[in-house]
C-alpha cells in the first residue's frame, strides 16, 4: 500500500499560517490493481481520497472557526 496525504493550510493576508490540517490514508498500489481488478482498486482509491479530503476539510474549518472565536473573545474582553 501507498500513502495519500492531504493537507490544508489557511493563511492570513501576510502569508502567516493560521491553521493546518492533515489527513493520511493508505491507497492501493499497482499490485492491488492487478490482484483485485481495476474497479475494486479504483473504488478503494476513490474512497480514500474522498475520506481524507473530508477529514482534512472538517478539521481545518473547525480549527479556523475556533481560532476566530478565541480572537473575538479576546477583543470583547478589551
Describe this structure in words.
By secondary structure, the chain is an alpha+beta fold. It has one domain. The protein is built from 2 helices and 2 strands. A two-stranded antiparallel sheet has the order 1-2. A hairpin with a 5-residue loop joins strand 1 and strand 2 (17-27). Helix 1 (30-36) crosses helix 2 (38-77).
Main traits of this protein?
2 helices, alpha+beta, 60% helix
Short description:
Helices cover 60% and strands 27% of the residues. With 78 residues, the chain is α+β, with helices and mostly antiparallel strands.
Task: Please write out the topology.
Blueprint: E1 2-11, E2 17-27, H1 30-36, H2 38-77
Antiparallel strand pairs: 1-2
Helix pairs in contact: 1-2
Quote the distance from N terminus to C terminus: 53 Å
CA radius of gyration: 18 Å
Shape: rod-shaped
Helix content: 55-70%
Beta-strand content bin: 25-35%
Give, in order, the helices and strands. EEHH
